[in-house]
Amino acid sequence: MTKIIRAEQSTEEEIKKILHPLVTEWFFSKFSEFSLPQKYGVVPIWKRKNILISAETGGTKTLTAFLSILNHLIILAEKQELKNKVYAVYTSPLKALSNDIHKNLIEPLHEIEELAAKKGIKLQKIRIALRTGDTTTYERTKMLKNPPHILITTPESLAIVLTSKNFVDNMKEVEFCIVDEIHSMDNKRGAYLSLTLERLNEVSSVWPVKIGLSATIEPMDEVAKFLTGVSDDREVESAKVDLNKKIDIQVLSPVKNIIEDEGLHSKMYVLISRLISEHKTTLIFTNTRSGTERVVSYLKERFPTEYGDDNIAAHHSSLSKEHRFDIEEKLRQGKLKVVVCSTSLELGIDIGYIDLVLMLGSPKSSSRALQRMGRAGHQLHNIAKGRFIVLDRDDLVECCVIQKEMMEKRINKVRFPRRCLDVLAQQVFGMAIYKVWKEDELFRLIRKSYCYSDLTRGDFLDIISYLSGEYSLEKNNIYGKIWYDKETKEIGKRGKLARVLYLTNIGTIPEESFIRVKITGTEEPVGMIDETFLSRMKKGDVFVLGGKKYLYRYTRGMNLYVSSEVARNPTIPSWFSEMLPLSFDSALEINQFRALMKKKLKSDKSKEETLKFIGSYLYVNKETAEAIYNYFLEQHSFLEIPDENTIIIEKFTDPDQEKKYLIFHTLYGRRVNDALSRAIGYIIGALGSRDIEVGVSDNGFYLSGENMMIKRALENLKEKNIEKILKEAIDRTDVLARRFRHCATRALMILRSYKGQRKTVGKQQMKSHFLLAAVKRISNEFPILREARREIFEDLMDIENAGLVLRWIEQGKVKIKVIETPLPSPFSLNLIIQGHSDLIRIEDKQEFLRRMHQLHIRNIIQRVPAE
After folding, report:
1. DSSP letter (8 states) at residue 132
2. Going by C-beta distance under 8 Å and a sequence separation of 6 or more, which residues neighbour residue 637?
3. What is the pLDDT of residue 512?
4. Helix axis angle, 421-434 to 457-467, nearest 10°
5. How far apart are CA 455 and CA 259, in angstroms?
6. Which CATH class for the 421-505 domain?
7. What integer pLDDT is reported at residue 199 of this predicted model?
8. Any idea which fold 3-240 has?
9. Which of 368, 563, 611, 811 has the highest CB neighbour count under 10 A?
10. How far is CA 572 from CA 458, 475, 695, 824, in A?
11. Is-above-0.70 flag for pTM?
């Protein structure tokens, strides 16, 4: 097992001792002293020790990583000993980030070269080049003739380089490998990169020292293993650098009383505009692309003299690359007063001077909040200033708890996906193109990757069987891509087009498209919806498009057929697919706070005492503490507060629609609730209840239907059988069909590009429809089908923590109470209303909540005399 060593600080003298005089002089012309990350990182990197450096944004981590590398290259350049090879690889998940580092690395190098020229020191030219999917053929050809000494690239482009016949020879002696923004690799790109790093280790005759950089990350030991891989002969230093960087964070509401005050929406924009005017440059995070455009549009319309195209801009992933780069450049130059984005500017791009970050609604985790806050005061000693702006009471509580986690420096844990078989298939094909392998040799290398350290021989051989064409899928145009000799146990590439096929279909990010919505039986087009949104829905769901309600009937290819005659209320909001899920860690923190509040309210502590507790526990002012107190008091007086020890299920009948609801107060985050709601809904359906309607949020979920035998359903659902039940529940759903397409494309069963022809997403989906039926006939445990299920259970949902919740219930640690209520309790209102959010304006939502609040108060008052 990889050995983890706690990194120790070096003294200034120790660092100076290893630096070339030119580097030392340049450094101290820019900085007065070495930063804390540099004291931890520069010497170990120079001594060729693997190291993971975690420090707050703006903590000079990037310069720490490059300083020893530049020093090494300057020493060689002065001796005229630089070879035509790649000495260092810098890999980053974002093309924009790569461009940024390219820019920031070249400037120091130029300045050192100018200094050398002034002193009459002759240096060989140190070459730096950028290799991403956007690099032109001309630039790539230039790199072949004169390979860069420092190669800046993305995980995908690094894999291409390692498979390129001509360029791979330049990678035979890579000495350094920087992996930046490691925390953003908690997805299939991370699994892909972990295998690519093992491929780099194998190609290079010297060990490429791994340097991992991240702003906010836990658990450090696991991330360190991800960086270096898993092997008894490997060790890595771990430096968790606490810069004690000051943060100035507050939770704000546009009104004093979220429930009773009017004009919440318009007052929010007044507040936003006031905060913008008080600062030089403001960055606003909205969580959704549609929200981003809406905020920019509203600010321009509402304050035409303040905001125009010259000083406000939207930035999100749907915009063109050129447009995004243009906005980033204007930010650096200080030309923009405000930029509004979804999540696209969260990573460490240096976007110049930003002195305020606004977060509209909850960022859903402390690590994401800190990452966003790091955009303000990006420089080392600046104070990071951020404000949460909340519009409802659940958001208020959530943001206050996340603020507490930030103040106490408690970071949500990152989790890298394990044993992704589709990524494995793609990488094995790439490795077979590079050379002929012995089966054991290939298996051993793969298992050194952190993400595949527990890969079984059976799963590995299943992928070899698929790639070598043993599953008889030729009639579906799935041909063998490798050969496997069972006698010699050797594996190699098959066919002359193997390299071209691999290079033109590489990658893990699925192509998404839009689905045409049509009226069943008429082919009449209604509009378009996001494919991700469709994958969140199931047959029978009601959604809103263009202000009208539609019922999901069935899909054919890239078409969704619907009914327009719908009496039922919407079950899913249009922005649901873009919503960030609340982290499980933060959800448990909120549950713990609920338990403490429940105890305070039960013990008849004075209001003043409880307000003091809220203020000190959550670091909030009296006004905010009062709003939280009133919300909890209302729930406590009306029903009971669900918490870490109690799940409450409300039984409620809507008299207007004669609909029965079961409202589950399971505050564990949407991913856990997605798993629990599907499993319970499926069991209730199997017990005889038909047309079960489901609504899911971070705070819980609801089921609606007739004859819902909840007691029997809960008795049937256990930790040991949740996976089996979910496997049956998703078997014929769109979510499995779409995820199977993504996995089949990654595993190269479906080719996006073949002989220069691009296949549209629609054609890919049609192909996957027939493929899915074919592989199910062959085996329900076909490896890529198994991977599609794993992706749903572990990446989309959170089956592990759903199982943990069920274990707590079985152990009696968490009790379940089923309570009949005359109307939904205060804590359940946002869950009930979320499906309606596309039909009602914010003002109408406020009116509904106000009316419900009055009904709750009336109900509480009516019960007081009886007690």
Report:
1. S
2. 860
3. 67
4. 60
5. 53
6. mainly alpha
7. 97
8. Rossmann fold (3.40.50)
9. 368
10. 40, 40, 7, 18
11. yes
